[in-house]
Amino acid sequence: MSPNILRQLSVSPAVAAADLETTTEPGRCPDLAVAELLTIRLDLLRLGDEREQERLFAACKNDGIFYLDLQGGGSHFSRIIDGMHRLNTDLFVHLSDDDKRSYDSDALSSLGRNGYKPVGRNFGGLDGKKDGFETYTIPKNGVRDLGKDASLFVRPAIVDQHIGLLRAFTSEMNDATLTVLSNLSRSLGLPEDETLEAYHRLDRPSPDIIRLLKYDAQPMHERGASHTPHTDLGTLTFLFTGQPGLQLMPRNAEQWLDVQPRAGCAIVNLGDGMSLLTNRLFHSCLHRVAPLPNLPMDTRHSFAYLVRAEDSTPMTGLKSKSIVAAQPGAKVFTSADWLRRKFEILRLCTHEEKDDWVLTGQKSSLPRWRGG
């Protein structure tokens, strides 16, 4: 297990107090240990601070998840995030069920890249419901008029009315992405013609998406994971929420840890794409959304920016002394291949519903389910 993650009130002495940012937000649950994650400052990464670059590398290698402090971004960035929170709430409040269903993601797009997903469509841990959340997905390509997706970007009026906000948000998220990736590229010593950021350009078509999420409330008598344990399929996920419910399971552990929200920060977790591009030097983070022990879960809103490599990106270890070379002759999938295969598994219905299935791409080149 990572030295940066607390389990049941014991902290590894290998983690210096200066490096360990402790969450003390109200609402801490005494029955669930809290994941003590490193907090990385985006403003220091932008300045090329070597110490912050080292801490970022450690978080990606050891934990696969960290807090990204965005408070150095200024009032403009704060207004964008506040606007996204309002859009997230307003869309689910003001669109009727019939209106939302008229923008069904399976009808509008491939791989769920645009439109509405109702409760219960994907694997989940709620009896008789599969998952316990609804989403509205907005594609970067549509927002920024990129590639063939731009002409297929069907959306309701409330999304159309916020295109300016959405363009500003995708721009800020890509800037944060490139800052994180360029620092990791320097830590890895990647050649200039094969950096992580070279596969994640703002002005090129890519499967990046904005995902607005609403989780149904859970009373005490209805328990289960609203969002099945899984790893994300892309490179990075920036999650914004002010409510509890996100939980992670560290490698080689058997206990879920509470990831508490932190003001002024995004929760950033690495996905399978990052793991593949570094041949598992960096690992994707296994996580879920579930109620805290012995507590009901209120209706939960969050939104995320999911960063994914451009479609033609070869999903194999990049050229670095720190990255183990792939086995000779190993099949190399493109980013488009990887996303399609993992999405197909997400929609499988051949498992036993009573089993606690885990969607993960951590164990092999192709995603597989693991019961447990």
Mean pLDDT: 83
Tell me, briefly, the overall form: globular
| Percent range of helical residues | 25-40%
Task: State Rg.
Answer: 20 Å
Describe this structure as you would to a colleague.
The chain has ten helices and 14 strands. It has 372 residues and is of the alpha+beta class. It has an eight-stranded mixed beta sheet with strand order 1-2-10-7-12-5-4-3. Helix 2 packs across helix 8 and helix 3 packs across helix 8. The two termini are 19 Å apart. The C terminus is likely disordered.
SSE arrangement:
Layout: E1 39-41, H1 42-46, H2 50-62, E2 65-69, H3 74-94, H4 97-101, H5 105-108, E3 115-117, E4 133-139, H6 140-143, H7 157-160, H8 163-188, E5 209-215, E6 227-230, E7 236-240, E8 246-249, E9 257-258, E10 265-270, H9 272-277, E11 286-289, E12 300-307, H10 335-346, E13 357-360, E14 368-371
Parallel strand pairs: 1-2
Antiparallel strand pairs: 2-10, 3-4, 4-5, 5-12, 6-11, 7-10, 7-12, 8-9, 8-11, 13-14
Helix pairs in contact: 2-8, 3-8
List keywords for this structure.
372 residues, alpha+beta, eight-stranded mixed beta sheet, four-stranded antiparallel beta sheet, 10 helices, 14 strands
What is this entry, summarized?
The chain is an alpha+beta fold and 372 residues long. The chain has 10 helices and 14 strands.
